[in-house]
Every structure is written in C-alpha cells, then in structure tokens.
Amino acid sequence: MSAPTAVTAHPAPSHPAWAHPAPSHPASAHAASSHRQADAAGPGDATLPAHRRRTRTIDEVLADARARLRRLSPAEAAEAHSRGAVLVDIRPAAQRAAEGSVPGALVIERNVLEWRLDPTSAHRVPVATDHDVQVVVLCSQGYTSSLAAAALVDLGLHRATDVVGGFEAWQEAGLPTAGAA
C-alpha cells in the first residue's frame, strides 16, 4: 500500500475562483480580461458588453427617447403634415381597423420602419429621399411612436418626432379620421 500524498494548505483566494477563471486559450484570456475591466469600469459604463451593463426600465428608455425629440401635439402634427411632413402611422393593421386611420398618413408598420425610411436602404419608400425629411410618427397612444421616432433619429433623420397621445389624442382633437369611430 502506498503512503498518502501530503496536502499543503494554501491561503483562500480573496475572491471566488469562479469570478475570473484562469484562461485556457487566447480567446478565454481576452474574455477574462474583459470581465475584469468590466468589473473595474462599473455597471453603467457604455463600453461594457450589453449583458454587463446596468439594466434600465422601459420608463427610463422611453424618457431618454423623448428627451431627444421635439414632440408635437395632434394640432401641430396636422399642421406639419399640411406643410409637407410625412405622417407615418406605425400601428398594426388590426389596430387601424379597430380604431380608424388618418387620411393621407403613410402606413409603415413598426417592424419595418427603419428599412423603409432610411434614405440609404434598398428597401426605402419613395418619400425617404434624404436625412432632412420631416417624419412624424403616429401610434395608438404615443408610446411606441416615441421609441420609433428616436430610432429614426439614430439613423440620422434628425427631424423625426412623434405625436403626443397618438391616434387617440388625434381623434379626441377632432382632426380628420376615417374608418372605425
């Protein structure tokens, strides 16, 4: 029978071993280094990978989006539309059927909005001629439209905005509508 091997006691690490595992190859070394840098940078640092950043609520995201827009009342949106702004209704077909529509509005559902309005896109609509086009986005209540308009601003459509209160406010203001009442 062989004698047992002596075990030498080592001091406990100052942090758990799983926190920053030893890299096994160069890609792992980079990942481990990135995690250490992320820990040092702090949870709100925009240079962090998305999964390591501080999470935000939808209310915070919405407030940030709206802070970048000069939102229009329904009357201001109607006036802008009469002067040539593109009024874009992003509501799904079922919502438009149930609530009604705005005569003269360009219907582009939310899921393809950026591709249709980016002047550099092969899938753009004819009115997407350049980044100076004024786009006024309309949804049902003015929430989704704020996020959509901010996405358009991110694409360089610097005059993009939305309608405060959405279609519901448009209708309540007595502005022209068609369909369901």
Could you please describe the fold and organization of this structure?
The protein is 36% helix and 7% strand. The radius of gyration is 26 Å and the shape is globular. The protein folds into two domains: 21-55, no CATH class; 60-172, Oxidized Rhodanese, domain 1, CATH 3.40.250.10. Strands 2-1-3-4 form a four-stranded parallel beta sheet, sandwiched between helices. Helix 2 packs across helix 6 (144-154). It is an alpha/beta fold and 181 residues long. Mean pLDDT is 82; it is low at 1-40. The longest helix is centred in the first third of the chain and has 16 residues, at 26-41. GO terms for molecular function: thiosulfate-cyanide sulfurtransferase activity.
